[in-house]
Specification:
Blueprint (H helix, E strand, L loop, with lengths): L5 H5 L11 H30 L7 H32 L3 H27 L1 H10 L4 H34 L13
Length: 182
């Protein structure tokens, strides 16, 4: 009979995920960049079609468009995050990271602006709820727009802040750091 080593049968695998070396992540960055650009174009062009032609002043158009906008934000958001991830992993200049951060800030302000417009249309919504035979759908829709709109705005502001701070916290890249004077 052969003696079997118990370690061979039990295995010595460590628990937890095995992290990828940084070089493997950088190879994937070009894929993240292309996917981010594609999702940004698809998501933000789709939102542009909602807003064109502009119908500000018409409460029905405003409420419908803002609802559609809030519903369609995930595609552009994922695109911006993939773009930010690619830019950071590829080691591009801090200007590009800050440009994406500024775009995130502007989108957050856009979300707040949409919620302000929605709030100004609330008298129209209240009349619609009062005159409608089924009000639960209207109430749920308004609640969803406010909940998701506030959540997206907060998330965009947080992502913009974290991305902006990531450029100043880490300082210059290793290739930009000069050797200390002796």
């Amino acid at each position: 009979m052969t003696d079997l080593n118990p370690k061979v049968l039990q295995g010595t695998r460590r628990k937890g995920a095995i992290p990828l070396p940084p070089s493997d992540v950088r190879i994937q960055s070009s894929l993240f960049l292309l996917a981010g650009i594609a999702l940004c174009v698809a998501g933000w062009v789709d939102l542009g079609f909602f807003w064109w032609p502009l119908g500000l002043g018409n409460p029905d158009w405003e409420i419908g468009t803002i609802g559609q906008t809030i519903d369609s934000l995930p595609v552009g958001t994922v695109g911006l995050m993939l773009l930010a991830l690619a830019i950071r992993n590829m080691g591009w200049s801090r200007i590009w990271t800050r440009v994406v951060s500024a775009i995130l800030l502007l989108v957050g302000l856009f979300c707040v602006g949409c919620l302000v417009i929605m709030t100004l249309d609330m008298p129209q919504v209240v009349r619609a709820i009062h005159n409608a035979t089924t009000t639960s759908g209207i109430k749920r829709g308004v609640f969803k727009v406010y909940l998701f709109g506030l959540t997206y705005a907060a998330a965009y502001f947080l992502m913009a802040f974290v991305l902006w701070r990531s450029t100043s916290r880490h300082g210059a890249r290793a290739s930009e750091v000069e050797a200390p004077a002796a």
